[in-house]
Design the sequence.
């Protein structure tokens, strides 16, 4: 049997909020052609992929500006906007509020749907970071709060510091190649009702060269990328967030939904050794 119960839902709840988004989101790290990226993201939203992930450090703010252009084109209510602030911003309320306002200015928004600590800050207490993260929700700058690159122990500790707002997301590297979250983080997130957003889920295209994925792609009439994404979609609480600047790739991502690998084939992927 697979390590986790197979999830067949192509809509995923954000934490325990009751709000659901498509099971695949889109990232914006390392955008090389902004014009094409705007076209691809706009196309994705029109096709129903409404979750867009960005960060203040991506392109030194340019990715947030790009997302702002897309949101203006399609309408605010059609996009679930996530951004991430740098760890040192969370050392004080003044710093985090200043950084949040700058992000919102670049996005052209009054608030985002979700804001994350980009990774844990080693020079301030986790309690301070979480309290200042929560402050952003208290001030109305974001509807939800979450973290990124928090391991099992850090996430578990972080949950002890929240007061009025729950941590709804932990965004981590997770793919068929990098499956470390499955050891402790993912089971804990499933238990606590926290959504795991998987970045670099297709390993910058490397999944296309994996023999087993190529075999399974032929079996299902899919691509290796679609097989790699489908493996993650079969995990409860997981939302992969691949990045692309091409509309045809958006179609490929969408083709990863609406079906599932068999339990036997999921086990084969689980047993791959790299």
Sequence:
């Amino acid at each position: 049997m697979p390590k986790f119960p197979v999830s067949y839902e192509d809509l995923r709840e954000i934490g325990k909020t009751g709000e659901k988004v498509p099971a695949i989101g889109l990232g914006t790290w390392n955008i090389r052609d902004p014009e094409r990226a705007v076209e691809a993201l706009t196309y994705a939203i029109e096709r129903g992929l409404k979750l867009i992930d960005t960060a203040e450090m991506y392109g030194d703010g340019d990715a947030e500006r790009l997302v702002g252009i897309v949101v203006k084109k399609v309408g605010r209510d059609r996009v679930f906007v996530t951004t991430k602030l740098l760890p040192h911003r969370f050392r004080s309320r003044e710093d985090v509020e200043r950084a949040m306002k700058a992000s919102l200015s670049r996005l052209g928004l009054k608030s985002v749907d979700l804001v994350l600590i980009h990774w844990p800050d080693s020079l301030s207490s986790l309690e301070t970071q979480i309290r200042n993260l929560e402050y952003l929700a208290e001030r109305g700058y974001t509807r939800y709060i979450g973290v990124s690159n928090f391991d099992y122990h850090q996430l578990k500790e972080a949950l002890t510091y929240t007061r009025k707002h729950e941590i709804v997301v932990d965004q981590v590297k997770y793919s068929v190649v990098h499956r470390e979250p499955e050891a402790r983080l993912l089971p804990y997130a499933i238990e606590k009702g926290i959504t795991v957003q998987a970045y670099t889920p297709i390993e910058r295209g490397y999944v296309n060269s994996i023999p087993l994925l190529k075999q399974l792609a032929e079996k299902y009439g899919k691509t290796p990328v679609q097989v790699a994404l489908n493996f993650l979609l079969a995990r409860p609480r997981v939302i992969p967030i691949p990045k692309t600047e091409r509309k045809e790739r958006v179609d490929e991502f969408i083709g990863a939904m609406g079906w599932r690998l068999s339990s036997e084939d999921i086990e084969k992927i689980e047993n791959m050794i790299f």
Notes: The chain is about 40% helix and 15% strand. Residues 11-270 form a domain with the TIM Barrel fold (CATH 3.20.20.100). Strands lie at 11-13, 20-22, 51-53, 80-85, 112-117, 142-148, 167-173, 195-199, 238-240. The longest strand covers residues 142-148.
